[in-house]
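User: Here's a protein and a ligand (4'-phosphopantetheine). What would the complex look like?
Assistant: Let me lay out the input and then the predicted complex.
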Amino acid sequence: MSRIGIYPGSFDPITRGHEDLITRSLAFVDRVVVAVAVNVAKQPLFTQDERLRLIRETVNDSRVEAKAFDGLLVDFAKKVGATVIVRGLRAVSDFEYEFQMALMNRNLAPAIETVFLVPAFDLTYLSSSLVREVARFGGDVSALVHPAVQQALKQKYGR
Ligand code: PNS
């Protein structure tokens, strides 16, 4: 029986940091479902379809699938047969929010375990919001995102 992990987030857009975590999670799960949250409180730069497309263009691995979800993460995890939620911990500042979320998810679905992964050292300070900001003001994001994402950012910001 294959073990399925779910990697949820906004992915607005997917970065090299996300890619790194997907690769790392394949060391202990057979398949990863990258779950794109539809109802994020933040107003996303990319539409749900654009975010899904960019994940699919970035990650070219038959063990990885990108899907959109609405509602509770644990309900979607059950629906796709995932038993592990994967999240990245970059800095101490991530910890409180991540800890609360993991405990709430365990409360809602005790059989699903949250696993925190540490990103590659050089990607530790990378986030989608920083990538958006750099791209918005014409900075070079080529080392931070896949070329397809770089192109999409250029189109969004017209530079
Ligand atoms: O990229 P983000 O903003 O860190 O992702 C947060 C996300 C989408 C993983 C989280 O907000 C989420 O799981 N939302 C779905 C709603 C839900 O299940 N909430 C209860 C968990 S506390």
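Summary: Helices lie at 16-25, 48-58, 73-80, 92-108, 128-136, 147-157.
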